[in-house]
Amino acid sequence: MTIQWFPGHMAKAIRLIKESLNQVDVVIELVDARIPESSRNPVLDETVTDQPRVLVLMKPDMADPNVTKQWLQHYRDLGQTALTIDAKKNIGISELIAAVTELAEPKMEKLRKKGIQHRSVRAMIVGIPNVGKSTLINRLVGKNQATTGNKPGVTRKNQWLKVGKKLELLDTPGILWPKFEDQTVGLRLAATGAIKDERLDFSDVVLYLIRYMKEYYPKSLLERYKLQEEPEHDVGWFEEIGRKRGCLMGGGDIDFDATAELILREYRSEKLGRISLERPEQ
Ligand code: G4P
C-alpha cells in the first residue's frame, strides 16, 4: 500500500502557520502520545525558528504509560519542553499553562522593559488532523467563552480566546500535515486514525499492527482473542482471529477485510490495551 499526501496541502498549511506566527509568543505543538515522532512534521522545525515551543503528547490515556515516560525523558534530554495532556479527562492543563508562561517569560520581560506592562502571553496550537486541537482549545478556554474580538495587527479571520487572565490563544489552530515519505510512518498514522479511512487498505495497516504487537505486546493479542498460542505466520493471526470472531465468508473462508476492520476498530477503541506504536530507541 502506498499512502501519500499532496505537497500542495502541506505548502498551504505551512503558509497559514507562518502568517500567524509573528503574532504569537509561544507555539504549542500537539502530537499523538502513541506515535510522537510519526505524528510530528519536521517542517515545523524550519518554520518555527523564533518562538519557543512546548511539545504536548496528547491522548496519553491510549498510550503505553511506560513508553510515554521514555518519550518525555527523551524530549527533555534533548532540551525540549514536553508534557502530556489527557484532554478527555482534563488532566495536564495547568501544567501546560505554567509551561507556556515560563517559556514566554524572556519575551514578556523585554516587553516590560519597553514599558508594555500588562500584555497577555499569546500562543497558538498546531498539530496534525485529529490529534486533539479543538478538544484542547475547548478545555483551555471553557465552554462559554466569548471571543475577545479582533485586535489591531491581527488578520481578520483570527481571534484571540482568553485562557485565564494572562494567556490568550489564537482561535484557529495550525493544521499540519503528517509527513510520510517513510511508509512505516504512514502505517502508524493510519493505525491511530490520523489518516482518513477511505484512503486505507485495512489489511496492510493491521498486518503492521499485528507485527508490532507480536514483538512488544504479544499477550494483549492472545488474551483479547483468546488464542492458546501465537500463530506461526502473520496471516495465521488473521485466520485465527477471524475464525474466533466469526468473520467468515460463504463457504466458511475467513473474511480478511472484515477481520482487519475488526482488529483496527478494537485497537483504536483501546480494547487491545494501551498500545504505543513507536519507541524512542527506534
Ligand atoms: P483536531 O481538532 O486536532 O482535528 O482533533 P479533535 O479535537 O477533533 O479530536 C479528535 C478526537 O480525539 C476526538 O474524538 C477527541 O475526543 C479525541 N481526543 C482528544 N484529546 C484526547 C485525549 O487526550 N484522549 C483521548 N482518548 N481522546 C482525545 P472523536 O472520536 O472524534 O470524538 P468524541 O470521542 O469526542 O465524540
Automatic annotation (TrEMBL):
<feature type="domain" description="CP-type G">
    <location>
        <begin position="14"/>
        <end position="178"/>
    </location>
</feature>
<keyword id="KW-0342">GTP-binding</keyword>
<keyword id="KW-0547">Nucleotide-binding</keyword>
<keyword id="KW-0963">Cytoplasm</keyword>
<dbReference type="InterPro" id="IPR006073">
    <property type="entry name" value="GTP-bd"/>
</dbReference>
<comment type="function">
    <text>Required for a late step of 50S ribosomal subunit assembly. Has GTPase activity.</text>
</comment>
<dbReference type="InterPro" id="IPR027417">
    <property type="entry name" value="P-loop_NTPase"/>
</dbReference>
<dbReference type="InterPro" id="IPR019991">
    <property type="entry name" value="GTP-bd_ribosome_bgen"/>
</dbReference>
<protein>
    <recommendedName>
        <fullName>Ribosome biogenesis GTPase A</fullName>
    </recommendedName>
</protein>
<dbReference type="InterPro" id="IPR030378">
    <property type="entry name" value="G_CP_dom"/>
</dbReference>
<dbReference type="InterPro" id="IPR016478">
    <property type="entry name" value="GTPase_MTG1"/>
</dbReference>
<dbReference type="Pfam" id="PF01926">
    <property type="entry name" value="MMR_HSR1"/>
</dbReference>
<comment type="similarity">
    <text>Belongs to the TRAFAC class YlqF/YawG GTPase family. MTG1 subfamily.</text>
</comment>
<dbReference type="InterPro" id="IPR023179">
    <property type="entry name" value="GTP-bd_ortho_bundle_sf"/>
</dbReference>
